[in-house]
Design goal:
This protein has about 750 residues and is α+β, with helices and mostly antiparallel strands. It is built from 20 helices and 23 strands. The chain starts with a helix and ends with a helix.
């Protein structure tokens, strides 16, 4: 009796131990998965960083190689001339001036002879000598003529245009090896900025380009104190000298001394030049997705452990109840015999399919109504017969395993088998059985639970999951390929559009130059004619005065004509000076697009002076009504481009086929902070179908006839992006066109303006 009573307690202890092992396994597996995921997260970040620095390396290598190639071209030309004649500073200056390899990257060529005297290839750089203190490479190369390769100078901000540049310089030799001096060029750092700023913004990272000896060329997010900063003493710079061509490291202060933030830095050394590209993201930002996944894992593991504890506790209580029930059954054995009839009724009417079989002869002794309904048999068809005779087991070999388990354990739980019904159908069942004694005979009570429908549903779900995973994989692959192609196409289109827009702006400036040159012919020609006449009058007066008796009438007439000619000469030269002054200011504004303070009416009048040649010799007129004393802090170059394109559109499109047309330009203040600029014409107007597409890039009704379709697109971008305003367009066929600009008196500050300030 004591041994029998102890069995449930031992089983409960064993079960609790197994539950503890399962909980420990869940905790260990969760910890391992979190650790592995953290390592994978940093590895993925490193791979993304490598992609970024390789892209930055390619961009920097291309820019510097292009600059070095231009220097080599000029040097080769100089050496070629040196074979024919002896070189001097004047010849070298002439060659450099003719070379002029200027583009969006290279700003000018500089030549410094061996005596340290400098010459710049364009007159737009009169203050070159003021920057000499920043150009530390000059004394270095003059002192070391043995250096043949190009070197990168210290980045600095030129004082005359506030532009940040990086010098690239080489020693210059004649064909016979004579050291002639230094030739160098300035590379605009803004060319790096567009790519580096976009990478930094998209990745929320620190992106930098620095020399291997520890000079920062560019660093984003942009902080002025880091541009050209010397970090030679940084331990990181010293360690990088011994590191491989690319790799990663962690640091809290490198390139960000103000914030003590642990970051993962990915770097790549550029083989062709002694510079390094760096990409860094702080560890907290990198680990945000990992923390979210870790939280989900911990919540899931906690719920699993909680459910396991609840299940363990419930089973423990169940075991205790079974223990008490066993004692109660043992004590009430006699009572159970008395209540046998009640048990028979409970067995017969149970909703669970049940059957009783004698283990000795394997005959079915009893079967309840639920099992009869499930199998389709009648009671007389099944009682007293064996499972083999009724062929209830589809695979009879499994029955031997079932009986062995039953005899060894005294019970069987959820033994899966195939059960054959009366109509021949075969169902998947979970067979549970218990072995017990009744009146000295070993009996087995068993219940076959039909799970055919559950198995069918599981198979369907499993197949659906497989199909869905395959579809998701295929769809993901297709989307990735499509996105990659679209990204490449968008990058190409953006680059092409940018180049076309720049070409359109330069074409407008070229047209402006041609018009002003033509307009200057008249006052300058008149001035030449009057000057020659005055010269003749001076000779005649000198001859008359040399006579013994100069004639008063002749001298008076020469004096009157000289005074009249002088007046004509002054008016002509004033007209030419006015044209040149207006053109100079408008051209500088339009080419540099710098922000400055200006009076709106004065600036618009200067722009209109330069535009006058476009319509002055036609029958079309421009009428102006400008409100005085409107002070603005904005971009006059953008206003010049907008007004130029508007006038050109009216002359080209609006007045096509018309003998006389009128253009009107009016300005009015709108509140305390806005100004409204209205330009209109009484030309042909724009049709409704074309009105909605006027600002689209490449839309033009003059395709193939000189129209690029970018004029009004440039106007829209300048108004909304540069000037920070709004543009409205109204037009009807035959009633002309009106363009209304609503602009802030103080334009929003762009990133480049913040730096320049």
């Amino acid at each position: 009796m004591a041994v029998s009573a102890a069995r449930p307690q031992i089983a409960g202890v064993i079960f609790l131990l197994l539950a503890g092992v399962a909980i420990a396994a869940i905790i260990l597996q969760t910890w391992w998965a979190i650790s592995q995921d953290r390592g994978i997260t940093f590895k993925s970040e490193y791979e993304n960083g490598l992609v970024a620095v390789r892209l930055l390396e390619e961009h920097a290598t291309q820019t510097l190689s292009e600059a070095d190639s231009n220097l080599s071209t000029v040097i080769n030309a100089i050496q070629s001339i040196s074979r024919e004649k002896e070189l001097n500073d004047d010849i070298i200056r002439e060659l450099i001036t003719k070379a002029q390899p200027f583009n969006k990257v290279l700003k000018a060529l500089q030549y410094v002879n061996t005596s340290g005297k400098a010459f710049v290839s364009t007159v737009d750089y009169p203050a070159y000598q003021v920057d000499a203190d920043e150009r530390t490479y000059i004394p270095y190369l003059l002192k070391h003529p043995e250096i043949k390769q190009a070197i990168i100078g210290h980045p600095f901000q030129r004082f005359y245009d506030t532009e940040l540049v990086v010098p690239l310089a080489r020693n210059l030799f004649s064909d016979n090896g004579t050291h002639l001096g230094i030739i160098s060029t300035d590379i605009s750092v803004s060319y790096f900025s567009s790519v580096y700023a976009r990478v930094a913004k998209d990745s929320k990272a620190i992106v930098s380009l620095l020399t291997e000896d520890g000079t920062v060329i560019v660093r984003f997010p942009l902080e002025k104190q880091y541009v050209g900063k010397d970090i030679k003493q940084s331990p990181v710079i010293k360690e990088l000298a011994h590191k491989p061509i690319e790799g990663n490291f962690t640091d809290k202060q490198f390139l960000d001394e103000n914030n003590q933030i642990e970051r993962l830095y990915t770097y790549r050394k550029i083989a062709a030049f002694p510079i390094v590209s760096v990409f860094a993201r702080d560890n907290d930002a990198i680990l945000i997705p990992w923390r979210e996944r870790t939280r989900d894992r911990l919540v899931f593991s906690g719920i699993t452990i909680l459910l396991l504890c609840i299940l363990t506790f419930s089973l423990w209580l169940h075991i205790r109840r079974l223990h008490h029930s066993e004692d109660s059954l043992r004590k009430s054995e006699m009572s159970l015999r008395i209540s046998e009839s009640k048990f028979v009724n409970l067995f017969k009417f149970s909703p669970v399919p049940l059957a009783l079989i004698s283990l000795a002869d394997d005959h079915l002794v009893e079967i309840n109504d639920s099992l009869l309904r499930q199998t389709g048999f009648q009671a007389h068809e099944i009682l007293g017969k064996t499972p083999q005779g009724l062929q209830l087991w589809e695979d009879i070999s499994l029955r031997a395993n079932y009986l062995n388990l039953l005899k060894e354990q005294g019970f069987v739980d959820k033994f899966e088998m195939r059960f054959r019904y009366k109509d021949g159908t075969v169902a998947t069942c979970l067979l549970s059985a218990r072995l017990f004694e009744s009146n000295g005979n070993k009996m087995v009570i068993f219940t076959p639970i039909d799970i055919s429908q559950i198995r069918a549903i599981e198979n369907e779900i499993r197949q659906l999951n497989t199909d869905l995973e395959e579809r998701v994989r295929q769809r993901t692959q297709s989307l990735e390929e499509t996105n990659r192609e679209l990204g490449n196409a968008l990058d190409s289109l953006t680059a092409m559009q940018g180049e076309l827009i720049r070409s359109e702006k330069m074409a407008a400036l070229g047209s402006l130059v041609a018009g002003i040159a033509h307009e200057l012919n008249t006052p300058i020609g008149n001035s030449v004619t009057v000057a020659s006449t005055l010269q003749d009058h001076a000779v005649n007066m000198e001859n008359e005065l040399s006579t013994t008796q100069p004639r008063r009438s002749v001298l008076a007439q020469l004096t009157r004509e000289t005074s009249k000619g002088a007046n004509i000469l002054v008016r002509s030269l004033d007209r030419a000076a006015q044209l040149i002054l207006s053109f100079k200011q408008v051209a500088v504004d339009q080419s540099s697009n710098h922000r400055r303070n200006f009076d709106l009416s004065t600036t618009l009048n200067e722009i209109l002076v330069t535009l006058e040649p476009m319509y002055s010799r036609s029958t079309h007129s421009l009428h102006i009504d400008l409100e005085p004393n409107v002070a603005m802090e904005s971009y006059p170059g953008a206003l010049a481009q907008i007004l130029t394109n508007s006038v050109n559109n009216s002359l080209t499109h609006g007045f096509e086929g018309m003998e006389h047309g009128n253009m009107h330009l009016k300005t009015r203040l709108s509140g305390q902070h806005l100004v409204k600029i209205i330009f209109s014409d009484d030309g042909a107007g724009i049709s409704a179908e074309h009105l909605a597409r006027v600002f689209d890039p490449f839309f033009t009704t003059k395709l193939g006839k000189g129209g690029s379709g970018l004029g009004m697109h440039i106007v829209y971008n300048l108004v909304t992006d540069v000037l920070g305003g709004k543009i409205e367009l109204g037009s009807e066929l035959g009633k002309g066109t009106t363009i209304s600009l609503i602009l802030p008196l103080i334009a929003p500050v762009k990133q480049t303006d913040k730096f320049a300030a």
